[in-house]
């Protein structure tokens, strides 16, 4: 699914996607007290590269898959409640559960081979460094 | 912490679901707080509260009981100062308060944090646990 339309502003496609997402479920809407799993993402960018952050509490490495293929990043998450507790035992069920998959088209100039992800305290950070050629290089000016 | 915080009942009897938006609680510390989402379920022996508080660590959790009110505060560690290029969420710290009925034995409360999920076990006082009653033939 080509979610993002990269123009001069690589993130304009994401804003469009976000508007659609909020229209569809609204980040803060709850149907019958049970929430769908739609973890929001933040993207940071600096000279080193791009970092994508998602809050995924209670998620272990084995529930998560991060794949990079060509210019696409695919994130899959699975979350389930403990199986030994029956529905009628719950007084409240607000935590979002289920399976979630999201695909991002990455901007050019990133080194997909060097993608690294770490998961700590329920926060996932995916680091995508800029490819060497794309980094701004200081050019030494020799005095003559 | 703040007068605007909502108090909720945690009873042994089924509760009515209330519609709440994630609320922002004003804080004197200057941090931004949101209400964490929780699951609450009941077993024969206890009530268990599970809260999503990603980005927090053990040192950042403040659990307090006073006058049968359980206050949960989870402060986020080291927030990045950089503004995201694109943000769908804003990291915040967490706060929520619950009033406990006397079904709960506030002495035995146990809490643990793992992968950004806080689990609080609230044991029921002995008289609140289900007991079978022998029926004598008469």
Question: Could you name the key traits of this structure?
Answer:
A: 144 residues, mainly beta, Immunoglobulin-like, four-stranded antiparallel beta sheet, 1 helix, B: 138 residues, 0% helix
Detailed description of the structure:
- The complex is a heterodimer of chains A (about 140) and B (about 140).
- Chain A has about 140 residues and is mainly beta.
- Chain A has one domain (about 10-80, about 95-130): Immunoglobulin-like.
- Chain A has one helix and eight strands.
- Chain A has one helix at about 10-25, and strands spanning about 40-45, 50-55, 65-70, 70-80, 90-95, 100-105, 115-120, 125-130.
- In chain A, a hairpin with a 2-residue loop joins strand 7 (about 115-120) and strand 8 (about 125-130).
- The longest helix of chain A has 13 residues, at about 10-25.
- Chain A is elongated, with a radius of gyration of 19 Å.
- The N and C termini of chain A lie far apart (about 55 Å).
- Chain B is mostly beta strands.
- Chain B has one domain: Immunoglobulin-like (Sandwich), CATH 2.60.40.
- Helix content of chain B is about 0%, strand content about 45%.
- In chain B, strand 10 and strand 11 form a beta hairpin.
- The radius of gyration of chain B is 18 Å and the shape is elongated.
- The interface between A and B is large, with 38 and 37 residues.
- Strand 5 of chain A pairs antiparallel with strand 4 of chain B, so a sheet runs across the interface.
């Amino acid at each position: 699914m080509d979610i993002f339309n990269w123009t001069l502003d690589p993130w304009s496609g994401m804003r469009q996607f976000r508007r659609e997402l909020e229209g569809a479920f609204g980040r803060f809407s709850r149907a019958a007290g049970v929430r769908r799993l739609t973890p929001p993402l933040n993207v940071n960018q600096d000279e080193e590269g791009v970092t994508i952050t998602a809050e995924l509490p209670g998620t272990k490495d084995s529930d998560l898959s991060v794949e990079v293929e060509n210019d696409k990043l695919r994130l899959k998450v699975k979350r389930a409640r403990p199986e030994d507790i029956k529905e009628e035992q719950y007084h409240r069920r607000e935590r979002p559960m289920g399976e979630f998959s999201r695909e991002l088209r990455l901007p050019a100039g990133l080194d997909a081979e060097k993608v690294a992800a770490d998961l700590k305290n329920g926060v996932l950070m995916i680091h995508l460094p800029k490819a060497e050629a794309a980094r701004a290089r200081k050019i030494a000016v020799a005095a003559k | 912490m703040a007068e605007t915080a909502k108090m909720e009942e945690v009873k042994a009897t089924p509760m009515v679901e209330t519609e709440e938006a994630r609320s922002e609680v004003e804080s004197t510390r200057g941090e931004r707080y949101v209400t964490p989402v929780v699951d609450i379920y009941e077993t024969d022996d206890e009530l268990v509260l599970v809260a999503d508080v990603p980005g927090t660590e053990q040192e950042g959790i403040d659990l307090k009981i006073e006058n049968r009110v359980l206050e949960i505060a989870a402060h986020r560690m080291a927030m990045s100062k950089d503004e995201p290029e694109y943000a769908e969420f804003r990291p915040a710290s967490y706060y929520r308060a619950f009033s406990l009925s006397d079904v709960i034995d506030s002495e035995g409360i146990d809490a643990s944090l793992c992968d950004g999920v806080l689990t609080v076990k609230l044991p029921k006082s002995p008289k609140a646990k289900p007991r079978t009653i022998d029926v004598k033939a008469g």
